[in-house]
Amino acid sequence: MTTPGRTGGRLSLQLVRMGFAAGRGTPGDRLRFWSLCAAALAVAVVALAVVAAVATHDGREARNTARGPLLSDRQHAVALWREAFDVVGEVQHSVIYVERLKADAPPPPGLSRWPAPGEAMLSAELLRDGQDEGIKTRYGRFAGTIGRSGLVSPSERLAYVGVTQGQPGEGSDSWWPVSGFGQSYPMGETLNGRTLADVLRPLGALTGVPALALLVVAARVGSRTRDRRAGLLQALGGTWRHRALVDIGEAVLPLAAGTALAVLVLLPALVTDVRLPPTGYLLDSGDLRTAWPGFALALLLSFVGCLLAVILLHRVGRDGTATRPRSFSSRVPRWRLVGCGVGVAAIALSQYAGEPADVTVFTVGTVLMWVMLPSVAAVASRAMGEKFAVRGFHAGRAGQLIGGRWTAAHPGVVVRISAAMIIGLGLVCQLEAGNSRLGDQAAAAQVSQARVGAGVLSVQSRYLTPPAIDGLARALPADSHLVSLQTDQRTESVLIQGSCATLRTLALPCPAAPEAVRAVDPRVAEIANWFGRNPHAQVADPAKLGPDAFQGTLLVVTEHPKPGLQAAVEQAAYALVPGITVETLGENWTVGAADKARLGNWVLLFGSTGLALLLLTGSLGAAAEFVRVRSALAPLAVLTGSNRIHRSVAFWHLTVPLLIATVVAAVVTAWQSLFFTATEEGGTVSWVVFWSAVAVCALLSVLIGVLGGRTASRAAARWRPTAD
Questions:
Q1: pLDDT of amino acid 682
Q2: Pairing of strands 581-584, 119-122
């Protein structure tokens, strides 16, 4: 005797088997399989990225806490500690000066021993990136690399330097007595570190949302076949649970395959440190290996979430006659057009919102406009489709007539396919415009460096004593000279003081008293641009003036700077004064701009990945439309006696509306980019990037129409009348 429970179990298993068989033997089954597989892969990779971000953040916090100095009084101190900053390749790093006070004091984490006086220990990344700038000998004798336990990430730039006895600054208030290490302290990468939320927000918005959009589109592929299957189940008395079991059987294999493929993406990062392009950041493989339970849970949750999405998105009408997701067909909802208008208005009015609300208003308006813009393009395509149909009717062109009527009757098709191209076009141009923002001072600094380069180097320290200045002047490379500056902000003047020979190399006279001069030499012109618009000159020895006379700032001027000059000056300066700053004119501004650009690289990483997912989503939408088009167009070959009708209908139904959408997106993108650069400091529009993106969208529009016509022609060759 068979029990009801056993019968129910057999029925459930049979329904799952039916779904599994349906996924392999229905029209468009390969498209649906690979769509679900790609969607599961994308969602799983995003889930793994979230776990990796959390694990990396926790590892960074733990190592930063372990290496932070414990400040104390001099009586209980085991070492003296001081932090300074330096730059390599427009990237700032910390230089930690240490002096051991007790012989048995353990060294900072990551160091096998304390650096001896005149020695320096560098991180591997700093050693690699600063090789061409003399970093190995800049702070003294190279004594080894810093271990992983002393770095928050393998890509951190950090240096520990042992101080030579009697160097200027020792014993002053800039030295901190420390009793050990073991508290959170901002140094190295953590000075400009971002919170975990700062990473998860762009990851979710720029990559997670496109991954979910891909999942939604993949779950909707093949709705025509599922209509018939759901109708049959409805007629047999099936409920939503029975439909869900069939859907599980159909989707479980591709979703499992996509989730498993995500493991292959993760494996290299578990084995070795992986550098993330274009950020240059090295993921710590040790942090990721310790988070393996989180990765396993993320894969499980992403698989279950994708399966639930497939089930929940497969809805039917109350009468059981429709399983396709409800969408507009005859007209675009008016609220979408209103939403796009609100977004445009928010962008235009954001400049009047005031800080910091202006950024929020601009961002919300941008998102709203780009999300609703495909609907505006669909309205334009629908209007054009009606005109095309009328012209096709009068001209006797069947392809134009049918394609125009299809476009007018189904504007939602244009929205689904064009959304990826339109949003992608806006995303590329906005990212490019955002990364172009340098600021006026940073742009001026780049001009100065291009004009004089290392011909003028600024040397700054409050410990520039006369003996140190005299020693620096003697240690400078040949053809380099030392001058001092005195600035007067009230009169906007700058006094350049140096020996007569030095002043003559700058094409300046040698007056005994301050005298206004003309900036004939480009180096003098740039000095005036940065320190005072009215240059004056006077003969004087900087070593005899004292630091108070020139506010702790000297200039090293060279008539014919050679490669490696700045490295040589830095090595000479660091040997005399620890923590001294040697930089080109305006270098602090270019460093700030470079830091902003590196932050933009993270946005570019997440945004480019999201753009790829959007393009894949659009491609799947187009492919799904091919399946519908080829089925509907196949009988026309019999009626017209030619396959040209397929290409013509695909051209007017797919290519032309997508080209219209591209034009609409291009106009809006150009307007927003120009508006953005006009209201934001230092931004520029790269028209090469803009027109390249437009050309790619136009090419995709043509390609989609060609493929649509080709698939319809192939389907027509195999079409046979059936009794449906």
A1: 53
A2: unpaired
Q: How many CB atoms lie within 10 A of CB 386?
A: 15
CA 430 to CA 436: how far, in whole Å? 10
pLDDT, one tens digit per residue, over 61-101 is: 999 999 999 998 888 899 999 898 898 988 889 999 999 99
645 Cβ contact list (under 8 Å, min separation 6): 398, 399, 402, 633, 636, 637
The percent of the chain in helix, strand and coil, each rounded to the nearest 5, is 65, 10, 25
How far is Cα 319 from Cα 724, in angstroms, rounded to an integer?
21
pLDDT, tens digit (0-9, with 9 covering 90-100), for 461-501:
877 888 888 888 899 988 899 998 888 878 888 889 999 99
Closest to 295 in 3D by CA, of 331, 259, 324: 259
Closest CA to 377 of 716, 667, 23: 667
Lowest mean pLDDT among 201-215, 297-311, 320-334, 648-662: 320-334
Cα→Cα distances 123→96, 110, 277, 714, Å:
12, 9, 21, 61
Q: Is 365 helix (H, G, I), strand (E, B) or coil?
A: helix
Where do we find the tokens 């409800």? Answer: 326
Token pair 């649906």: residue: 32
Closest CA to 589 of 25, 130, 90: 90
Helix or strand or coil: residue 162? Answer: strand
Predicted TM-score (pTM) of this structure: 0.80
In whole angstroms, give the CA distance from residue 494 to residue 452. 19
How far is the C-alpha of 93 from the C-alpha of 192, rounded, in Å? 10
DSSP bridge partners of 456: 557
Q: What is the pLDDT of residue 375?
A: 80
| Sequence-separated contacts (24+) of 663-668 with Cβ below 8 Å | 664/373, 664/376, 664/377, 664/380, 664/422, 665/373, 665/377, 665/418, 665/421, 665/422, 665/425, 665/426, 665/697, 666/425, 666/690, 666/694, 666/697, 668/369, 668/373, 668/426
**Cβ atoms 711, 628 nearer than 8 A:** no
* pLDDT tens digits, 377-404: 778 878 888 888 888 888 888 788 888 8
Strand bridging mode 493-498 / 534-539: parallel
Phi-psi group of 488: left, alpha or beta (phi > 0 → left; psi -120 to 50 → alpha; rest → beta): beta
Say what percent of the chain tops pLDDT 70.
78
Distances in whole angstroms, Cα of residue 43 to Cα of each of 49, 57, 479, 609, 668: 10, 21, 61, 12, 30
Residue 274 β-bridge partners: 283
Query: Can you name the residues that pair with 82 across neighbouring β-strands?
Result: 97
Pairing of strands 493-498, 581-584: unpaired
Query: CA-CA distance, 263 to 48, in Å (whole number)?
Result: 9
